[in-house]
Amino acid sequence: CDSTFFAGFYAPCTHVQISNHLTLLAESLPPELSQQSSLLITNRGHRNRCPVPGILYNTNTLESFHALDKQSLLRAEATKIWEDICSGKAEEESAVLSRFLLISFADLKKWTFHYWFAFPALALDPPATLIDLKPASQCFTSEEAESLSAVCNDWRNSSLTSDVPFFLITIALNSHATIWPLKDWEACQSDGQKFLFGFYDPCHLPKNPGWPLRNLLALVCSRWKMEKVSFLCYREKHGFADLDLSLVGEVTLSVPQGWEDPKFIPNAVGWELNRGKKVGRCITLAKSMDPTRLAISAADLNLKLMRWRALPSLNLDILSSTKCLLVGAGTLGCQVTRMLMAWGVRKITLIDSGRVAMSNPLRQSLYTFENCLDGGEMKAVAAVKSLKQIFPAVEAEGVVMAIPMPGHPVPSQEEDNVLEDCRRLQNLIAAHDAVFLLTDTRESRWLPTLLCANANKITVTAALGFDSYVVMRHGAGPLGSPVDIKSKREDALSASLDMLSVEDRDTRLRLGCYFCNDVVAPIDSTANRTLDQQCTVTRPGLAPIASALAVELLVGVLHHPHGILAPGENALSSSNESSEQPLGILPHQIRGSLSQFSQMTLLGHSSNSCTACCSTVVSEYRKRGMDFVLQAINHPTYLEDLTGLTELMKSTSSFELDWDNETDDEADI
């Protein structure tokens, strides 16, 4: 149970049928815990915000809320009031005569709030006896009423006294009224004049004074031992004193037994009744709130609890603002999307050219049977609709387009369309912060990999076998951010290309991409395949595992101080830096096998002959643009020739081993 000092506010009643209740505002809580003691001072001077010191006890469970010792809590607050009366503080700072206590429990998942207010009142024993109570307009002459209204308005309009809720009133024989602070009690004692105690009355009832009177009478009884007291319940209309609504009353008092003892503490009452019963209140806001805002709040709550309990450095802002592009909206794409949303990513774009087939809904979680009807909806469109149904606040976009691929030659009449797709993909990658490569074929990952290396984008690849998977993050591009070729002279560009290196700015080897370990260029992997070979056949459990790991890699990169340049780590990394990261190590590759229920982290550096991310390929793309892409698509061996893989394979095939024909016996001699 946590306790916090804060302030409530009230003002005199301003309506004949409505009381002015205690109000809690954003300003009620101190901006800093160290400023709790000065909270009342910083909230002074507002005529409609008379401060009332209070304390909040917030519990973490409903059981703790019910188990609180409410009588002890009430008595503790009443003791503060009594001590302020005995010490004279209540006369100097009359706001402390009214205190309140609030206990609460907030169920933020259901938006249900349990709370109970107490307004401690010192019990007079014997109790005060009300002799008379009537409208103030009936208790004064017209001259007295006019003067009293004028001084009350002046008191309320002064920034020094507008929120001072307790005061003294004297009316001289010449009908002139004066208002005094409580500390001037002795100065305003004079024979022949009317004398009243005044207070701001929030109550509208014509026959009932408001709750601040209770402790005012305790102060009068304790400090000044008066047996008969007249009081003014000050109320207003349209911001001015209203003596028809205000009340004047008279009570008789007897000093209770024991009040002379400095160690004595009076009994107290004050727990608010709920429909006549002494129980707390409960309010449910879920039904009155916008469902979308409820969904956002619930989703954010889970992440905030993660940050509160285990990950104080979790950056929710960077997660919610990161724009993610998913190339492929199939089994992996659906799972990755769900994982991204669970981590708080709100901006997601999906690229796919396929339609939802009857076999898809069982493994691809964003689709249903209805999406398969009438030939099937486009996956990119259906996925976005599903995401909006799951979480209306997601900013999702579906792009229907095919990815141009090496080994899939383009007829001359289709070249313009293919080049347009290439430019569109280039623009999409440039507009996003992170890219996931989640397609079925190896060659469909080549162009996105090249474009990401050129734009230096965070790139994560996930690929599945029958019972194995690989998840990896690509290293930074070889050239960093792309240069504006148009603004550079050719000689300056040539000089920059001569300085290309596979090392990043920290002189560490760049991490490799999906193609860095290949010794052949990507080609058409679907040609001459039977139906069973064309279908992706994997164990159902692979996709959720690989997708979760892919998203965890992205979250790790976003939280790593080096970002995309973060080195590859594993459980045996000697670097102390990895152990200090709140999310743990950040591997380069994760390879797993369901048949062995095993998983390992690997590290692979970039290759000088990579067909997708090496400096030769990226620089050639920057020089030739879409002409280079079109040549790579139409001529399968072009990339191998450009990167030197052709020469490498020739030298390998011509290499002959010189076998040692000596016998074992001879070798042993």
Automatic annotation (TrEMBL):
Annotated Pfam families: ATG7_N, ThiF
Limits of the Ubiquitin-like modifier-activating enzyme Atg7 N-terminal domain: 7-289
Keyword Lipoprotein belongs to the record: no
Positions annotated as active site in the UniProt record: C535
Domain of life: Eukaryota
Entry GO CC: phagophore assembly site
InterPro entries: Atg7, Atg7_N, Atg7_N_1, Atg7_N_2, ThiF/MoeB/HesA, ThiF_NAD_FAD-bd, Ubiquitin-activating_enz
An annotated GO BP: autophagosome assembly
GO molecular function terms attached to this record: Atg12 activating enzyme activity; Atg8 activating enzyme activity
Sorted UniProt keywords: Autophagy, Cytoplasm, Protein transport, Transport, Ubl conjugation pathway
Domain THIF-type NAD/FAD binding fold, first and last residues per copy: 307-561
Gene3D superfamilies listed in its UniProt record: NAD(P)-binding Rossmann-like Domain, Ubiquitin-like modifier-activating enzyme ATG7 C-terminal domain, Ubiquitin-like modifier-activating enzyme ATG7 N-terminal domain
Subcellular localization(s) per the UniProt record: Cytoplasm; Preautophagosomal structure
Keyword NADP: no
Assigned protein family: Belongs to the ATG7 family.
Summary of the function given for this chain in its UniProt record: E1-like activating enzyme involved in the 2 ubiquitin-like systems required for autophagy.
PANTHER family: UBIQUITIN-ACTIVATING ENZYME E1, UBIQUITIN-LIKE MODIFIER-ACTIVATING ENZYME ATG7
Oligomer status and interactors: Homodimer.
Protein name as catalogued: Ubiquitin-like modifier-activating enzyme ATG7
Protein species of origin: Kingdonia uniflora
Species lineage: Eukaryota, Viridiplantae, Streptophyta, Embryophyta, Tracheophyta
